[in-house]
């Protein structure tokens, strides 16, 4: 049996998973002196199934596998239980950050407005014992702004540097893992170095927020609520770890569906939860209404970078973007014309069939695009496998349609207009061109353990 997106002829991982899964989970669940069962012991363990894996064949080490299994609801309640003990030296400040693509799931599933869903989700998490609940939109602001600037710089260097263009988006962890573990150097040098919103949120919570609260980063347990399982793997990356404090920037990732499992375990409905305003990273203020970025089903990197590049490189103000669907609705292109010439050609490639076709064209030297927004999930982030799935693991199309309607109705806020972001560039990051910006908001992607030909795939 092989993963649906496997590029290898044989799968060496399934047997290993079958042999080690039970022992790994048992060992983890009894660690740190928490062998006793509590009221949440029946919750499901976190698993990345073969159907969910996006880059298989030895891509996940046994250590990574064990740590992924640990990222489940039990780990959240382990921290909650620790905070109830008398030994305050082991207490943690529990912060949860919610991805904007998760909120439409809760709104559609419980028939709420997206603002009510955000407040009720915050109320539910705080009723469990969570101290702070944040919105990761501000992290996406930083990621988009840095991606915009990097694209303009790459475009201006395109004639001097072989790998300057095309530039591929770096926000999707499934795509990044696939590129590093399977596609290797063919692609990695083209990936934007801006961190994903999840990891920038980790820097904000364990860097900026920790300093504001006079806390050591290791005293904060940071949970991300996300639409897909691949975020769990992303949280384990070595480049998102602070050795000085022995602390990951994101300690645990729970999918939207896993949060609903907790609600079901406690027999709680979102409609019965008291509304509580989402917290802000700044002082004692609270977040206002939910906002999003341009883009129908994601954080809108393509639209923001396209408009920014049109203005910066060609002095053109683009108000509306027209997508042209090519082979299917998940592969679309956008072009900018000036004086009868196509000066910018962008594409959105969602799902691994489209990604594979894109890579084949790159390998053959027939790649026409300057930028590609790449997402592993067909349909984009809203269709992440951690939400909007039926019990048999298939997409819940009716719920997904509702989610898309909810997401499209959320007001758009340009990253450039966020005054908190502009202030943080100066006060926290020491200017937009500082060394600290590179250290905090950027990373580097490189090939890892290439073991076989990566393009021998048959769909």
Describe the structure.
By secondary structure, the protein is of the alpha/beta class. It is 39% helix and 12% strand. It has 16 helices and eleven strands. The strands form three sheets. It has a five-stranded mixed beta sheet with strand order 3-11-10-9-8, sandwiched between helices. A four-stranded parallel beta sheet has the order 2-1-4-7, sandwiched between helices. Strands 5-6 form a two-stranded antiparallel sheet. Helix 1 (14-29) packs across helix 2, helix 4 crosses helix 5 (114-128) and helix 4 packs across helix 14. The chain is globular, with a radius of gyration of 22 Å. The chain starts with 13 loop residues before the first helix and ends in an 18-residue tail after the last helix. The relative contact order is 0.15. Mean pLDDT is 84; it is low at 1-42, 46-58 and 450-459.
Characteristic key phrases:
11 strands, 39% helix, four-stranded parallel β-sheet, globular, single chain, 459 residues, alpha/beta, five-stranded mixed β-sheet
Element layout with pairings:
Layout lengths: L13 H16 L32 H9 L2 H10 L10 E6 L4 H7 L4 H15 L3 E4 L1 H20 L10 E2 L4 H11 L1 H4 L8 H16 L7 E7 L3 H5 L6 E2 L4 E2 L3 E4 H10 L35 H14 L9 E5 L2 E8 L2 E10 L1 H12 L7 E5 L21 H13 L9 H9 L7 H7 L18
Parallel strand pairs: 1-2, 1-4, 3-11, 4-7, 10-11
Antiparallel strand pairs: 5-6, 8-9, 9-10
Helix pairs in contact: 1-2, 4-5, 4-14, 6-9, 6-12
